[in-house]
TrEMBL record:
The chain crosses the membrane at residues 20-40, 60-86, 107-130, 136-156. Coiled coil: none annotated. Keywords: Membrane, Transmembrane, Transmembrane helix. InterPro entries: DUF2254_membrane (IPR018723). Pfam families: DUF2254. It comes from the Bacteria. This is Protein of unassigned function.
Amino acid sequence: MKTVMPRWRLILSRTLRQAWVRAALYCVGGVLAALVAWRFQFHVEENFALSVGADAVGNVLSILASSMLTVTTFSLTVLVNALGAASSGVTPRATILWSEDRRAHDALATFLGAFLFSVVGIVALSTRLYGPGGRLVMLGATVVVIGLIVVTLLRWMQQLTRFGRVGETIRLVEQAAAQALRCRRDQPHLGGIPPDPAHRHARPVLADRIGYIQHVDLAVLTRALGGRDAMLDVAVLPGAFVHAATPLAFVDPEMEAAALAAVRRAFLIADDRAWEQDPRFGLSVLAEIGSKALPPTAADYGTAIAVIGAGLRVLSEWIPDPDRPPREPEHPRIRVPALSTDDLIADFFHPLAREGGGIVQVGVRLQKGLAALRSMSPECFSAAAMRASILVTEHAGFALLVPSEKAAVEALTLR
């Protein structure tokens, strides 16, 4: 079972998902491969090197350098166009997932690394750094690089057929939302304990900037408490919008200024919401994708129905596993509220009910989806699903004009 990610791991994970990191590593590898050929040239017999035509490596490297620069530029253009298409045609909130796609990063990094490998090799050949043995080693390395390029190109071609598509975007959002909700199901209080309203401290720690809570580091909060016998109440969860009058936490009135500053540092506040600790964000993005497919100008009911299926799969991750024993809290002095099932249901179903109220196919599918959730886990979803089902019926009753269509949606209302 995974633990809640501390701040340093979150920052490291986000950094490693950036395109430039992988590209930089591949570039360093390409440069080192070209330089290693100089080191190993002394282990190759000169006559053998001349007999296999090692002098041809210069021409091969020249072709490789020119072609890789073109392919890299083309791939960057495709990536930028795909991000633009995903932003305008699906939702801007999903573009971060495309920009962090590992397959795209691998392709760009391979092409750029091969380009630098070729350039360094050409420079080394021009300065006569390589003897016959070095040219032979360089030729062998070039063959390996070409093989890597061929494999990457084939994978990249397959990826281009799906890149930026609505269906693939839904899949990426579903994966991110399901992962976040699964982690929250396993640790509903982020590694802390449930709140105790009767014993909550009265001194609030206010936010020092305006934005969204992206991450709460309970390890930092525990260290801020120090050795004294005290508790700390977290007031906001990841995804909450905060401002200068919003309490982040409630603490012991006797806490020192340095400890108060440490409490504020435990809350990562940014301009946008993030995926890692905020499963409601993923459900909201899925609902946004489905909502954009429902206006009469779009009339893409199939996409909305696909989104409903994806949302059901995500919400099913919230069902407790009876075979999994409860986990001991890692931070027993930190009280953290849990997510509300009503909020999860509302984030996903309410926008779709509003936008799809006048479409009987969508209304019926929403009612069946809510019924499926209640059937899978009545104790978890029953009350929230019934309230959402009534809302779907109300929207359909207001928007649908054909009595038989209204009756079809109303007949599926959960009671």
